[in-house]
Specification:
This protein is of the alpha+beta class and about 325 residues long. The protein folds into three domains: about 70 residues, RNA-binding S4 domain (Structural Genomics Hypothetical 15.5 Kd Protein In mrcA-pckA Intergenic Region, Chain A, Roll); about 90 residues, Pseudouridine synthase (2-Layer Sandwich); about 140 residues, Pseudouridine synthase (2-Layer Sandwich). Helices cover about 25% and strands about 25% of the residues. The protein contains seven helices and 16 strands. The strands form three sheets. Strands 5, 6, 7, 8, 9, 10, 13, 14, 15 and 16 form a ten-stranded mixed sheet that branches. Strand 15 and strand 16 form a beta hairpin. The termini are far apart.
Length: about 325
């Protein structure tokens, strides 16, 4: 009997320790002062219409440790708002997946606030860890960054880049932020542009590649243009400069399929330089010459425009032979 009591006490102490550890971290919160136009609204309506909080997130706030406060006092979603009241929404703490471990690494942070961050990913680093390399991914470094900030959340990737692709990535700093940004992305309200060096010189200096993409038979990695079962994929491009053996193009995606830029340029006979998977020449650069240089969006909370840029890395600058003013492209 004594041993059972001791085991229960030890388990309770462990749970208390975990709770205290979580509480020491910062849960994401939003504060809003209710104005005259919001007077008389039910709190539930304000959360859904003004803050775009989903039913799933509302349930998490209610059942998983979040709080809804009016002037510091806990309230339910049935509360009727009054002008001048201060609403505080505290989102529940998040626990990272057991597979994702933190590992400090240098991060090139282009923008950061409590809602989201944008990082300039170098080529050669995967975004998500694998069983073969559980600690060498960007997500490992991001989790370490969150832990250093004492943030009670995990990593939420908004847009991925291939291991060999460099450039801007958006990361939400909590589940609510990921929901908001994901919905914006589905509505094409987040705009990304890329610079790519392609093999040869296309006859059309500006155009659109509209060709469906699907998995290549026999491969779990490679994609191909598939006119029967592929998903619609649209890439817009404009050649900025042509050299003897290559061209520099600015690229904008209308859709976001895996390997889309790489597959589309290969399909028109101009694969990316350094892209051995899709037939690109390897003499001048050791990875696909593709860089996400610009991301633009309206910030979901501040409603201010964000125009973010990341300069070309050294290997692509060497192909360009000159500095490039990204803001004039």
């Amino acid at each position: 009997m004594y041993r059972k009591i001791r085991d229960v006490n030890q388990a309770s102490a462990a749970l208390r320790g975990q709770f205290i550890h979580i509480m020491e971290k910062k849960c994401y919160r939003i504060e809003r002062t209710i104005d005259a136009g919001q007077h008389g609204m039910a709190l539930l309506d304000f959360l859904r219409k003004n803050l775009k909080v989903s039913h799933r997130t509302l349930s998490a706030i209610k059942y998983k440790g979040g709080r809804l406060l009016i002037d510091g006092e806990e309230r339910t979603v049935r509360h009727i708002l009054k002008e001048g009241e201060v609403l505080t929404v505290i989102f529940p703490p998040e626990t990272p997946s057991g597979f994702l471990v933190s590992k400090p690494m240098a991060l090139d942070i282009v923008f950061e606030d409590d809602f989201l961050m944008a990082v300039n990913k170098p080529a050669g680093i995967p975004v998500i860890p694998t069983h073969l390399d559980p600690t060498g991914a960007l997500a490992n470094g991001l989790l370490a960054h969150f832990e250093n900030e004492r943030r009670a959340s995990t990593v939420h990737i908004v847009n991925r880049l291939d291991r060999g692709t460099s450039g801007l990535m958006l990361i939400a700093k909590h589940r609510y932020g990921h929901e908001r940004l994901f919905r914006m992305q589905k509505k094409r309200q987040i705009h990304r542009r890329y610079l790519a060096f392609i093999d040869g010189c296309p006859d059309k200096k500006e155009g659109m590649i509209d060709a469906p993409i699907g998995r290549k038979d026999g491969s779990i990695i490679e994609r191909t243009v598939d006119w029967q079962e592929g998903k619609r994929s649209v890439t817009h491009y404009k050649v900025l400069q042509s050299f003897a053996d290559r061209s520099l193009a600015v690229v904008r995606l209308e859709t976001g399929r895996t390997h889309q830029i790489r597959v589309h340029f290969s399909s028109i006979g101009h694969p990316l330089m350094g892209d051995d998977l899709y037939g690109g020449p390897m003499e001048s650069i050791g990875r696909q010459a593709l860089h996400c240089f610009e991301v633009s969006l309206i910030h979901p909370l501040t409603e201010q425009p964000l125009h973010l840029y990341a300069g070309l890395p050294a290997d692509m600058l060497a192909l360009a032979g000159r500095p490039i003013n990204l803001k004039t492209i």
